[in-house]
Design a protein that fits this description.
The protein is an alpha+beta fold. The chain is 22% helix and 37% strand.
Length: 142
């Protein structure tokens, strides 16, 4: 049985808006990746991929939590593609008040069980990497 897809048109529109900001600020062209890559974008300059980017949005302030939770599955996919291609993998998060980013290849994440319980989906509880909020660099105000 396939797992439900929770990504909405609203999520995709917000992600695209953030990608446009990243493109301007980092002077790179972002291409949306097929779902099988598990990451959101390839960043290109001069016709070459220079980085991989995962974009997340949250409905709370950056300071509301001490860590940012990312599924271990997503993290492992990011690390694998980064190691194989020898390219950076950046997680960009838009909170309600800030946009920040962290280098997933060099973050200080701690692995523990976590997830959400509001969708009544037992697969939402899973191993996750908890990245300290202090590790995020500022990209812009939200």
């Amino acid at each position: 049985m396939n797992r439900p897809k929770y990504e909405t048109a609203e999520n995709l529109a917000a992600e695209e808006q953030i990608a446009e900001q990243i493109s301007v600020l980092w002077k790179a062209s972002l291409t949306k990746l097929p779902i099988r890559y598990k990451l959101d974008y390839a960043a290109e300059r001069n016709g070459r991929i220079v980085a991989w980017i995962e974009v997340k949005t949250r409905k709370y302030k950056k300071s509301d939590f001490d860590t940012f939770m990312l599924s271990l599955d997503k993290y492992l996919a990011a690390i694998e593609i980064g190691k194989v291609t020898n390219l950076p993998v950046t997680l960009v998060v838009r909170w309600t008040d800030k946009i920040g980013y962290v280098d997933l290849m060099n973050c200080r994440g701690v692995v523990k069980m976590g997830g959400r319980k509001d969708r009544n989906d037992s697969q939402d509880i899973q191993p996750a990497v908890y990245i300290p909020i202090d590790d995020f660099k500022g990209l812009s105000d939200g």
